[in-house]
Write a structure and sequence with these properties.
With 711 residues, the chain is mainly alpha-helical. It has 20 helices and nine strands. The protein is rod-shaped, with a radius of gyration of 47 Å.
């Protein structure tokens, strides 16, 4: 018989003989057991035996339900003599004793266990394994440090009583130690009790545990009855709270989408006994097209990082790539080491640009996008910082630059259009097809859709990648009408300035309806310089006081239209009007032919207005700030004094007041060889006709591009 020394300690008796001492010890123990069990016959349920109640032997107290006070008594588990199990138990084996009640039909059938519930990770099991080695490096387990727990490691194995104290409920549910924040789990699995790799490079091999309690072992695992994973109810032995799939990860990492259809577990392993790679990346990964590949991922930058540029393609980003431009797993990428980025990108942290939370997609956000994108190569977007020009479209540079080749743009910053935390998404959260950030500038509600157009001729979205300009700042073939995507009667406002609606409604009035663009005879670049600064936030870019007619209206500097034109002389110089006369019309046809006559002597009224009346008569305020015939007029009559080349309701493009704040309505009616001019700005009512003959089309006489004489 094994003598209970703790019993002797409770009843000290002086002895002088070793044999006598042994005899006394036996008698004392029998007395204790007799007194412990004798009251059971008449003991009321729920009351402890007096010996236990007095606390004379706290090591065998059983004062907490359910292990005392119901139908369970000491003799339910213990036997005084000839016990089949150690510790005087009625059943041999600790687990067997527990399962004598904890089985589907037993007295503790509410929490049943059978041998098949024992976890075999990756195979089956719904409860923590018992009767297995406590020191198990494969599963990150070692002998516990807590002495109360370690004493219950029997023959090097875990038993039910290793974790549970069946005799007391100090730590529920009958735990042997305080398990706050899963302290008992972390004691045995100490090597998995780690923090973030970024806090300590030695933290590798397991998912970090938050010591503040927001993330612990039990966030993912449960010790018993883990019926998830595998075929229910066998489980898969990993003791997870829900199915062993990517959804378990997404409970916390809900912003991390699958990369190219591959979920979290393709690359990550929450517990890795090899502890080689950082950030839970597996040592070997099955790739979609290249079989199983070894992975060395020891650092986020430099050697053995995402893609370090050496000839061993074992970076976590390299092992799969077979079609990308960079870091293919056979070295065949056209810019293998991302050389299109200034200096190359080998050994850099790929997630600076390719965010994990956005599935690593190109353009998924991140910092440093502007270093590559958004500008032409070598554009200095900040002092001393130059763009690599990677993937930059003409449209990006037009919108964001102000150097010599992009002076016409609005000089925007990325955040003006984009959600800079989620490239390439726009500021309204939409993609290019659905975004509305372009609407304010590129009118979609006019006669010409400035956003999405037929054949991509004028739509901003249609031309985003290809652009509309040539290297010489002219418009590409087929995109000659680009300007009217904004300059129609729709709503296009840039920097507080509405675009003048020169294209009108394209029916009653406008450049292509009744202006120089009729039948596509002239395009914008015939008169305008498309390379000049186009968006300056000023509602009127020309004023008579500034004397900047050509620059103010962004006319071609190689063709002159002298406005204001000095009054007081009959001399007329063709070069002063060569924007009109050298490009399409000729001075001789205008001054000498009788295609615009009064019928009194057949004199050309062009000659009369431009030459004979030039001496202090019929003056013109060239910016329309005063009526035509005001004493404050600053110019003799010139072509735009009477004509609006962008078109009007009047025949022959004679001004009807549009585009001039209501000024400039000549009050002209007529056609077919005769007509009247009310002259409200110049003179009284005048009639003309007779010199040309009825039915003559004046417009054809004045302009015929097929005729080399260019009337």
């Amino acid at each position: 018989m094994t003598v209970n020394k703790e019993c002797i300690a409770d009843y000290p008796i002086p002895v002088t003989s070793r044999s006598l001492k042994t005899t006394v010890q036996i008698i004392c123990c029998l007395f204790i057991f007799f007194n412990m069990f004798r009251p059971l016959a008449g003991q009321e349920k729920g009351n402890q035996p007096k010996l236990l109640f007095d606390g004379n032997n706290p090591t065998i107290q059983a004062i907490d339900a359910p292990h005392w006070g119901t139908t369970i008594e000491c003799l339910s588990c213990h036997a005084l003599h000839e016990s089949p199990g150690g510790q005087l138990t009625a059943v041999a084996g600790n687990a067997n004793l527990c399962m004598s009640c904890h089985n589907p039909t037993g007295q503790a059938g509410a929490k049943p266990f059978v041998a098949a519930d024992k976890a075999v990770p990756g195979t089956s099991g719904t409860s923590h394994a018992w009767d297995v080695a406590a020191d198990n490096p494969t599963h990150g387990a070692a002998l516990p440090a807590n002495p109360d727990i370690s004493r219950q490691i029997i023959n090097g194995q875990i038993i039910c009583s290793t974790c549970h104290d069946q005799h007391k409920q100090t730590f529920q549910p009958f735990l042997r130690a305080d398990n706050t924040d899963d302290a008992m789990c972390r004691d045995c699995h100490a090597e998995r009790d780690i923090g973030s790799y970024r806090d300590n490079p030695g933290n590798k091999g397991s998912h970090p545990i938050d010591l503040q309690g927001s993330l612990t072992c039990s966030s993912c695992h449960q010790v018993h009855f883990a019926y998830t994973g595998g075929a229910y109810p066998q489980g898969d032995g990993y003791l997870l709270k829900q199915a062993n799939d990517d959804n378990l990860c997404m409970n916390c990492h809900d912003t991390y989408g699958p990369h190219m259809g591959m979920g979290c577990r393709k690359c990550h392993k929450p517990h890795d006994p090899n502890k080689q790679n950082i950030l839970l990346v597996k040592d070997r990964i099955w790739t979609p097209n290249s079989g199983q590949k070894n992975v060395r991922f020891y650092s986020e930058t430099g050697a053995f990082s995402f893609a370090d540029g050496d000839n061993t393609y074992d970076g976590i980003c390299e092992i799969c790539h077979t079609q990308t431009n960079h870091f293919r797993n056979d070295g065949s990428g056209p810019t293998q080491n991302h050389e299109n980025f200034a200096g190359g990108y080998a050994g850099a942290n790929c997630t600076d640009c390719h965010l994990h939370k956005n599935a690593f997609l190109h353009g998924s956000g991140g910092t440093g996008c502007i270093e590559c994108h958004g500008h032409d190569k070598d554009f200095e977007y900040e002092p001393g910082l130059f763009s690599a020009g990677a993937g930059t479209s003409q449209s990006h540079s037009t919108h964001t630059e102000d150097d010599a080749d992009d002076i016409r743009g609005p000089l925007l910053v990325c955040a003006d259009c984009h959600d800079t935390n989620n490239f390439p998404t726009f500021a309204d959260g939409q993609d290019l097809t659905n975004t509305t950030v372009c609407d304010a500038c590129h009118s979609a509600d006019g006669a010409f859709d400035g956003l999405s157009s037929v054949n991509g001729s004028i739509g901003a979205k249609d031309n985003w990648k290809t652009g509309v300009y040539t290297a010489t700042d002219s418009l590409q073939t087929g995109k000659e009408k680009w300007c009217v995507g904004c300059h129609d009667q729709g709503s296009s406002t840039i920097e507080g300035v509405s675009a003048p609606p020169v294209a009108g409604d394209n029916s009653v009035w406008g450049y292509y309806a009744k202006g120089h663009g009729l039948n596509n005879k002239a395009i914008c670049s015939d008169c305008h310089d498309l390379s000049t600064d186009h968006l300056d936030g000023e509602p009127r870019t020309y004023s008579s006081g500034s004397n900047n007619y050509t620059a103010g209206y962004r006319l071609r500097s190689d063709l002159t239209l002298l406005v204001p034109n000095p009054q007081g002389t009959k001399n007329i110089t063709e070069s002063d009007y060569n924007l009109c006369w050298q490009s399409c019309h000729t001075l001789n046809a205008l001054l000498n032919n009788t295609n615009f006559s009064k019928g009194m002597g057949g004199k050309s009224l062009h000659q009369k207005h431009l030459k004979e009346n030039a001496r202090n008569r019929e003056g013109w305020q060239s910016d329309w700030s005063v009526p035509l015939d005001s004493p404050n007029s600053d110019s003799r009559v010139t072509c735009p004094a009477c004509h609006n080349m962008h078109g009007s309701d009047n025949n022959y493009q004679v001004r009807d007041g549009r585009l001039t704040n209501g000024n400039g309505n000549i009050g002209f009616t007529g056609g077919g060889g005769s007509g009247t001019c009310s002259g409200q700005y110049c003179h009284g009512n005048e009639s003309y006709g007779g010199g040309m003959g009825g039915g003559i089309n004046h417009k054809d006489l004045l302009y015929s591009p097929a005729d080399s004489s260019r009337r």
